[in-house]
Write a structure and sequence with these properties.
158 residues, mainly beta, Jelly Rolls, six-stranded antiparallel sheet, four-stranded antiparallel sheet, 1 helix
Length: 158
């Protein structure tokens, strides 16, 4: 498909790849090989984000977390991933979905415990007032005038 500037459709393979995470260095390793393509940004969406994410074997989607004001939705396109929440582990396979309501204090993330890459769509709000809590580590993501800022749980910036 030929892309035209401002066209409402695109080929996801032509969207720039972002590998790794923006976490402070001490928390980056599990997500180092994670690959994201910001489809929503490429299409000019501003009210919600859509990412096409690939997790190679051993990769995590994120540190386990929950959002104060943002809903999250994931839909597994290919492969299998382990969803880890406060309630335990659940294997998701292609065609399955998971949702995480804003404000529900249930830390979650996806881990590729398999031997082949897995790909999923990640969809969420873009709330400026959202804060992110990471229950397993000394990390918090706080809203700030310049965007969100990583702090430790005492509120000190990284």
């Amino acid at each position: 498909m030929a892309e035209k500037p401002g066209a409402p459709a695109l080929d996801p393979e032509e969207v720039a790849v972002r590998q790794g995470s923006s976490y402070p260095e001490a928390f980056r390793e599990p997500c180092r090989t994670r690959i994201k393509r910001a489809l929503g940004d490429a299409l000019g969406l501003s009210n919600f984000g859509v990412n096409l994410v690939t997790l190679p074997p051993g990769a995590w989607s994120a540190q386990r977390h929950w959002h104060s004001h943002e809903d999250e939705f994931v839909y597994l396109l290919d492969g299998a991933l382990t969803l880890i929440t406060d309630g335990g582990e659940q294997v998701l396979t292609a065609g399955q979905a998971a949702g995480f309501p804003a404000g529900k204090a249930d830390g979650h993330h996806l881990v590729n415990k398999g031997t082949v890459p897995a790909t999923y769509l990640e969809i969420g709000d873009r709330r400026r007032d959202d804060a992110v809590t990471y229950p397993d580590i000394d990390l918090h993501l706080d809203p700030a005038p310049e965007g969100r800022v990583f702090t430790n749980k005492k509120g000190e910036p990284y």
